[in-house]
Design brief:
The chain is α+β, with helices and mostly antiparallel strands and 177 residues long. Helix content is 27%, strand content 37%. The chain is globular, with a radius of gyration of 16 Å.
């Protein structure tokens, strides 16, 4: 089973991001149900490892916090633009939670995450969209902001590959005090 740890976005934030869908011709927009903020990608795990992951995540303690959208941007892979994202406002509680998750998973034997944590929500795949159109879209939406929303839990998700998009299923929610 393919796993990742994420924040399932509260409805007001999800609705704000969903309104952007379709505003860039040729982009493959993330379905509203799949919008999330990844805290740690895990990858393939068998049932025994999934139980160890659940146990490690269950031991994490933290307080709820506020989260807000802040700007947009692009990710590239091998020099080619591949995805469009909405940024998340810098937050010490978010960074602390992500660090606790990373530490807990490394302690049970998962390899450390190689990429630096950059809080974002992937909005669309844009590998077939022309660069000028991407630049225009970013200029039009780079001031994206949202009201802060309360985050009260984080979630362990499984991911099944679909024909066009992956299907994410929340496996376990972990409450934040």
């Amino acid at each position: 089973m393919r796993l990742f740890v994420a924040l399932d976005l509260p409805d007001p934030m999800r609705e704000r991001l969903t309104r952007l869908a379709g505003s860039l011709a040729g982009a493959r927009w993330t379905p509203p149900a799949n919008l999330h903020l990844t805290l740690r990608f895990i990858g393939e795990a068998d049932r025994v490892m999934a139980e160890e992951i659940d146990h490690a995540l269950s031991a994490i303690r933290g307080r709820g916090f506020k989260l807000a959208l802040c700007g947009t941007g692009l990710f590239t892979r091998s020099g080619k633009t591949c995805s469009l994202w909405a940024g998340i406002e810098a937050s010490e509680p978010l960074e602390r939670l992500q660090g606790k998750i990373e530490t807990a998973l490394v302690r049970i034997g998962l390899p450390p995450e190689r990429k630096r944590f950059k809080p974002h929500v992937t909005l669309a795949r844009v590998d077939t969209v022309a660069e000028p159109a991407l630049a225009t879209w970013i200029q039009a939406h780079n001031l994206l902001r949202s009201e802060s929303v309360a985050i009260t839990h984080f979630t362990l998700f499984s991911s099944l590959r679909g024909k066009e998009q992956a299907v994410y299923h929340p496996e376990v929610d972990y409450e934040l005090g």
